[in-house]
Specification:
GO terms for molecular function: glucose-fructose oxidoreductase activity; nucleotide binding. It is an enzyme of class 1 (oxidoreductase). Keywords: Oxidoreductase. InterPro entries: Gfo/Idh/MocA-like_OxRdtase_N (IPR000683), Gfo/Idh/MocA_Oxidoreductase (IPR052515), GFO_IDH_MocA-like_dom (IPR055170), NAD(P)-bd_dom_sf (IPR036291). The chain is of the alpha/beta class. It has two domains: 120 residues, 3-Layer(aba) Sandwich (Rossmann fold); 179 residues, Dihydrodipicolinate Reductase, domain 2 (2-Layer Sandwich), CATH 3.30.360.10. Helices cover 32% and strands 26% of the residues. The strands form two sheets. It has a nine-stranded mixed β-sheet. A six-stranded parallel β-sheet has the order 3-2-1-4-5-6, sandwiched between helices. Helix 1 links the parallel strand 1 and strand 2. Helix 1 crosses helix 10, helix 4 packs parallel to helix 5 and helix 9 packs across helix 11.
Length: 340
């Protein structure tokens, strides 16, 4: 089998997860790294034994590159995806795919014309706890779902935003807490609830109001397509990054994710179903442990492997619609309906 050649655009913190994942995918080699910081990028590329480019458009001229991984600030995702597709490359992008749901149709059209795949990294779907929840729902082990509750309290300082000025700005990040940190939680909620039909939410900026022009806290109530209701609260104003608290209530019991462990509670019975082990030194614990699996499955899909699947354009758009709906609802102070 021909070895696929991959290029990574963006040498920020998250790119190390992609480098590590690619090293474990059979018949894949890292051919190039792209970053606007030539000193940093060339040093890293030398360590990886790959080529370095300062301009991603120059890299796209390399016919040997098969797949492009996009690990850049949010506002750069759309033009880079479109350029990579136009160059005939397969694309694997960090979330969010785009900042505005209205841009999704343009990405779909470009992918269809190029006859190429676009995968988006919602790696938390592949955490052991997430997969165990999905299995329980599929098997109807606890009966009909009644509700989902999620609480995410993390810490982001003014220094975090000062170090990367594109963050905390609607023009370049597309928001803040919701579209960056909490979008994975919203994705899991809608995935477990089979999509969201409507929601009402509020966003605000509190402790970080002098640092950003976007939100640092948010809450929402939502109605899922499976008939359950949802309660969501998130903030970047905590003193530390607490593990996600996620609770799913069913007719015959509860599933509770706490401290990265999933428990099933039925009356007095309490059973541990799964645990998310810490990453093996690559990346940060709150990123989850699914990057390697997400990237491996994307490449399997490119090879038409029966186990190959990934979060594509349509699926990735769902959490983005939720983010946009919460912003709209907060502005309008009313329920917002979400259509497929």
């Amino acid at each position: 089998m021909k070895t696929r050649q991959a290029a990574i655009i963006g040498a920020g913190a998250i790119h190390t997860c992609h480098v590590e994942a690619l090293s474990h995918v059979p018949d894949v080699a890292l051919r190039a790294l792209v970053d606007i910081d030539s000193d940093k990028g060339s040093r890293l590329a030398a360590g990886y034994g790959c080529q370095f480019y300062q301009d991603y458009r120059e890299m796209l001229l390399d016919d040997a590159v098969d797949v492009v991984h996009i690990c850049t600030p949010h506002h750069q995702h759309k033009p880079m995806i479109l350029a990579a597709l136009a160059a005939g490359k397969q694309v694997f992008c960090e979330k969010p795919m785009v900042m505005n749901p209205l841009d999704v149709a343009e990405i779909k059209s470009a992918a269809a014309i190029a006859q190429r795949h676009v995968g988006v990294c919602y790696q938390n779907r592949l955490n052991p706890t997430s997969l165990a929840i999905a299995r329980c729902i599929e098997e109807n082990a606890l009966g009909p779902m009644r509700a989902i509750k999620a609480v995410l309290t993390w810490s982001r300082s003014g220094g975090y935003y000062a170090a990367s000025p594109w963050r905390g700005r609607f023009a370049t990040e597309g928001g803040s807490l919701l579209i960056n940190q909490a979008i994975h939680t919203l994705d899991l909620m809608q995935w477990f609830g089979q999509g969201v039909s409507r929601l009402k939410g509020v966003v605000d900026s509190t402790l970080l109001a002098d640092e950003i022009d976007t939100e640092d806290s948010a809450m929402a109530t939502m109605c899922f397509n499976n008939g359950a209701r949802g309660l969501f609260y998130a903030s970047n104003c905590h003193a530390s990054d607490s593990p996600l608290l996620l609770e799913l209530e069913f007719e015959r019991g509860l599933l509770r994710l706490t401290d990265n462990e999933l428990w099933q509670l039925c009356g007095d019975d309490r059973v541990k179903l799964a645990s998310d082990a810490s990453p093996d030194g690559v990346g940060k614990s709150y990123w989850g442990i699914g990057h390697q699996q997400a990237i491996r499955q994307f490449y399997r899909a490119l090879d038409n492997h029966p186990e190959g699947h990934y979060c594509g354009i349509t699926e990735a758009a769902k959490s983005l619609q939720m983010v946009n709906a919460i912003y709209q609802s907060s502005l309008l102070r009313k329920w917002v309906h979400i259509t497929e």
